[in-house]
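One example given next:
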Amino acid sequence: MNFHPRALTALALVAASACAHAAYPEKPITFVVPFPPGGTTDIIARTLAARVGAELKQTVIVENRPGAGGNVGAQSVARAQPDGYTLLLSTAGPLSINQHLYKNPGYDPVTSFAPVALLAAVPIMLVANPSAPFKTVAELIDYARKNPNKLSYGSQGNGTTSHLTMELLKTQAGINIQHIPYRGSAPAATDLMAGVVQVMFDNSPSTLPYVKAGKMHGLGVASPKRVKGMEDLPSVSETLPGFASEAWFGLVAPAGTPEATVDLLNKTINKVLASAEYKEELAKSGTQPLGGTPADFARYRDAETAKWGKIVQAAGIKLD
């Protein structure tokens, strides 16, 4: 059977493309975390990287690129080659919040990235320095009302969920507490324990070990209801009805990444998230594995973008 030269060329290109995909991943993959080491995003990235690497039989590296509320790391991935080897493992900040805060974050959370998978949601804890003059959410609100601007709170940084969750509390409770932004969870936690700031919201994987060790005092969780495994901590909504905030994490690739590569990564991650061993590990800090298709993640991201946009507007926050 004879083939036209053009047909042979087309067949060769198809074969080459198939071989290229079959080889993926043929070199290490990098998860870019747009925050410093030690925080929840970093913890989730490192535990996930080890398991995804084992499934794909390839090394998965975690690289921290903090700065500008996550924008620095997000920009670097948006500009990376769309080949599946540089991925962004992020919070709602760069993917749903920063566009409401910054005039030009340097990327578009929708058009710059291809959603890969929604990874997990974690409870946000309200914690205080053990020597603070309040032990409950109600006592915190009462103290802040009687002592306006006397308290200060730490956060992971401007525009992060820890920052906006406290702004939501301030708005709903009608209180004033001074904001001290940090470059990540770890330095904020250090200053909370030292008494430099008195209170903060932060993700449970970062704060729960300190609460258990008595270095922080847990006031409550921002989840709508009490969290399994942390039932002794009341929900803030028990004091402020309707109050709710949750941190989530997702993985995205640069826009233009081959669909087959995104699909392989998605299926691999869903397999890891469904494993009993990984679920058990996440449950220790109240973390809930999510998963689903890239389309599921896109819908979730869009809903969160609308929700956080309203919170940012209500709080009147704008960053350069």
